[in-house]
Write a structure and sequence with these properties.
By secondary structure, this protein is mostly helical. The chain is built from three helices and no strands. The protein is rod-shaped, with a radius of gyration of 38 Å.
Length: 119
């Protein structure tokens, strides 16, 4: 497994976690804390909002770093994706035909059509 493939897996996991964290938040301020009830659970409303906010920014930062590092590790060709059907070592280039020396050409007299004159 290449380094680029590892980065792709990590990016996918971070994206999924970021989607989950964003979906848990409520845009009007309720979010996860409103579904859990009282202020005694998870440290209260403010701490839950702070945790979700910090985790969103952390995951976004990790995602950006993973994307940058994956672009540095990308070589342009994936080693695992080479074709197994067509083996490049068996492909041969067509051989050039052997060059023959130029043959002597005789100068032929041009054939002109006979024109008969009527008198």
């Amino acid at each position: 497994m290449s380094t680029f493939s590892i980065f792709l897996v990590l990016i996918t996991i971070v994206c999924f976690l970021l989607i989950v964290v964003i979906m848990v938040q409520n845009p009007k301020g309720g979010g996860l804390s409103s579904t859990l009830g009282g202020s005694t659970q998870l440290g209260g409303v403010q701490k839950t909002t702070d945790f979700l906010d910090k985790s969103t920014w952390t995951l976004a930062g990790v995602l950006i770093l993973l994307i940058l590092f994956s672009s540095l590790s990308f070589t342009g060709t994936l080693n695992d994706s080479s074709s197994k059907v067509i083996d490049e070592s068996t492909i041969s280039t067509p051989a050039k035909p052997a060059e023959t020396p130029a043959a002597k050409t005789e100068t032929a007299t041009p054939i002109t059509p006979a024109v008969e004159e009527k008198k």
